[in-house]
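#lab-general

N.A. 3:47 PM
ok so I finally got the sequence cleaned up, no stray characters, all 320 residues accounted for. can someone with queue access submit it? mine expired

B.Y. 3:52 PM
send it over

N.A. 3:53 PM
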Amino acid sequence: MQYWPRKRATRIYPHLSMKKGAGVLPAGLYAFAGYKVGMTHALVIDTRKHSTTKGEEITLPVTVLECPPLKIVGVRTYNQGPYGIMPAKDIVLITDKHLTRVLPPRKAGTTSSTSTLSSLTSSEFTAISIIVATQPHLAGIGKKTPEIFEIPLGGTSDEKKTFLDQHIGKDLTIQGAFKDGDYLDIHAVSKGKGFQGPVKRFGVSLRSHKSEKTKRGPGSLGPWSGQQHIMYRVAHAGQMGFHQRTEYNKQILKISTTPDEINAKGGFLQYGNVKSSYILLKGSITGARKRLIIISKPVRLAHPNPLPTLTHISLASKQG
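B.Y. 4:20 PM
back already:
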């Protein structure tokens, strides 16, 4: 079952948890965001130490994420409570008429403030996050309304305060958070597939053509006595897709600010051309095209592989 309940995500783009608290996250900006463009393939020189194709040129499927700069619109502080960290204070830094409709509501327990960060001392908070807004008008996505979400800051209280002093009023770029060869975790909302039966939703086997009632249903609903109800583990029809999911340890092959290096002939299907900074990720990732993907530093990276040498990126037309 792994994920339960299988229901629709709250919103079309994911959220990051603040439950880890202070002192756990690596120092600096913990996450960034980008729009999923599509996939292509690249030729690389395999640099893995024990690979059977070491030193040879191999083909890798790659995913393109367009990552325009993020704008800091606010700061949210957290203090330690009886059940973990609790929101304490919101500091609004930008009041833009284009952001008023999409600014997140103030969390319960917080006090709103329009003061500057100069009055905030490192002893006043246990954890701190920045509230950022995307700038989709800089990307090739063809939309104007920004997405607003929180990004936790890592490091000590003094390191967090220093980060804020250095970056308030400036755009956050992908180059300031990650570099070529880094591993990251992908947080995304999967493609929605609507109401599906148990065969497609859970992969149960088709029953015999002589079965009673149905062929595409579960073989048993459970014992006749005991719990007196049908257990949630029994495969039934329901919502499939549009769930928030996390994929671990995806490697960055390239970060660039030159879109012409990646734009396919005729543009990417259902997206168009990349217009700002982008990253190349090894393999595929969750989510539909044009959907906002949040990338974060890895939480369970064990044995990282060296960065393969990129020799060619396919720019062939994806139209047919």
